[in-house]
Amino acid sequence: MSFVEVSNLCIVYDGMTAVNDLSFQLERGKIYGFIGPNGAGKTSTIKALAGVLEPAQGKISLNGFNLETAREKALACVGYMPDFSPVYENLKVWEYLDIFAAAYGIKAEDRPSCVEKWLIKSDLGTKRDALIKGLSRGMQQRLVLAKTLEVYPLILLLDEPASGLDPLARKQMRDLLKEARANGATILISSHILSELSEFVDSIIILEKGRLVMAGTMDELRRQTGGTQKLIIRFAKEAEGLAALEGLLLEEGLGKDRVRQEGTRYVIYFQNAEEAASQFLKKILAANVGLLECSLASDDIEDIFLKVGAKEVA
Amino acid sequence: MNCLDLKNNALFLSCWYERTRPVQLICIGILILGSIFLGFLSASLHQTQLSAVCLSLFNTIVIVQALVLLVQGTMLAGQMAARERTGETLDFHRNSPQPVGHKVIGLIFGSTCVEWGIFCILFVLELFFTVLPEVRILQVVTFNVSLIMTGVLFHSIAVMAALSSANKKRINPIFLLLLFLFFGVPILGAFLLATSCTFFSHVSGVTAFQAILPGLWHVPSAPHFNGHFYILDFPLIVMQAIVQIPLLLLVIKGITRLFCLPNSLAWSKADVMRFCGFILFVVTGFFVANYMHIDELFKASAYFTFYSDGSMKSFLNRFIWSEISLFTSLFVMAGGLISFFCVPTYFRCSKYLMLNKSFGIAGKVMADDGATGMLTVLVYVGMGGLFILPYVMVVHCSLLSGISYFLIISSHIMAFAGFLEFFRLSRWRNKRIFILTALLIWWVFLPWMMALMMNFRLNEHVSMATISPFMALPYAASLLLEQKQFEFIAVMAPCIVAGVMSFLAYETRRAMALHILGDKKLDV
Q: Both A21 and A91 in a single domain?
């Protein structure tokens, strides 16, 4: 049985259906990226999973407990972080962590050590006694992430957790999430920063207009979208290299539409053919045009998302 | 986990940390001590005997204690609960696995922890005054028990109101205080005095002062204020508990529901029915009891004696008129409330229709929050009809007048419920101006136009102007007391309006069902 199970979820707002007949399962100890354009229903789904939004229809099961019939047991293992970080502005940083540790059943005598540990982990040790309203947005975001993680939840629901964080804090967040996964947590993370997601997610769920469009590991998604290989090259002498490239394309019978210029780089796309891409690379190397950079890459999460999005629009 | 284990209660702690900052405590302490000290100084200027000064000081403490708990406490409970909602930290607590009972206790007592602390200190202080011959320990204890019950009820109501408000804006507490001082206090005071209503006296906790006042300040007993209920007789404090505890339980149930069902109104249909049924039951109970003890009331009631010519007959007429007015107002207000809560919102109705389609079970449960509210309102109206019977029996009116009274009032309640259902389920639901305009046309402009057409002879004939509740309700009460003539068209007009509104509600509901379940299923 799956650790998190969502079946036929329907979320209705006033006259508008935000999520329509959505079903998916999440396995234990994996990180799932939850992506989709604005208004796709990601936040609504996460809120419904966290029990803060009532679905019009559908069943949500968390750790084997039905959210509707066994609410307290189902939510016992859930940590939730919304996109806009709600905080008590007039509380001190340590007090905020303390009350949420209490909310998840950590006893009064154990809480101080827990709070101190997470103050350090979230790099807020120096702000221990500061009022929350005096913190920057990024710090508040870190604080909310710390309160979510401090109770070691088995299911983590994170809605845009990286927004407002600086690069260092983002790296720290990724490390904390990987640590949580290693401890057996299932993480559902929604983000618009797709490049960051691909670094650490195990699977992706793509939503569009409230419906599930595609779900699976990166490899599965690549296969489903007709996986494209990208050959990225940068010539030492651009004019000379470009002439050689055009000649090779003509020789191989490939159209110019296969090539896209990204600054000084040239990206050549090969549909479902890793072998063809590497052969083409060998030929470029044999042409002896002088390459500053050359790499072979598969579709990344952004490419897949754009393909799926384009398909949906079409 | 013990629900009184407050040091592990997250919501309690969140309020506790914020409210127990030294600066806040010092300021509140200075204000309270200052009030008591000034009370003492003014007493010592006017009194020469030490016992009189002490008694005056005791009175000041009693008033400060009541003000801090009932006014300041209620405001802060509302403010802290509103902060949870507007700051969206409420979602964290909804999401936390702590038992919902702990969350409710944490919010109610956490937001008012300082006021409860002050209450306890002042209670201990009051106990010292029991050395005075005028102050008995039983009086002080009764006063405090009464105050505790009223305080918990008021704070719970404030929390429920703040959590259930849809408005995301933060309410300015100073604005609320001014509103309460300038409008709330005079209106409430005038209402309590005018109706001399036992029910409101018990709900507002006047019982507490009743325990202290008669022995201490030599104020005569408030009219209607005793422990009589139907044919039973209770001590005052027990009577207060009988009135307040069921209301408190309903309010707490409402708060619990707001934690568990975020998109729902605080009360389910069943809860609203219980609330309205309870209010009608209690008010009728006091009416019956007072009518049975009319001689006792005649002697005690200064208000009615003042406004009547002093004879028992005019006193009785005045009493019955007042009670019928009160029952009518409550019946209509509770009808409005039941319509508001029982008429489904668009979300509830969609959920109900979808579940109905998927499982076919919801349709069988008319008490479901998404089912039509018209049937529930009809049940309420029927229930109200039963409670009217003692009033009809007392006034000895004709059957025709009794039925007309009931028809007019129930038609207006049904019409309002129908209008609300039409409004909430139709495409007009997001245009608030529409409901205001339609209500003004229905309740004011049309009857006004009719009055103009009738040459302003409204005191002679009411006629179709009864389509407005402002015209219909006084007419219905007058009809019951046989002060006005029966007019067929005046009775039928509200019934026709109720019919039209019910039809509109039915049609809107049908159109919505087709939209949700039909071909045009989802308008994403």
A: yes
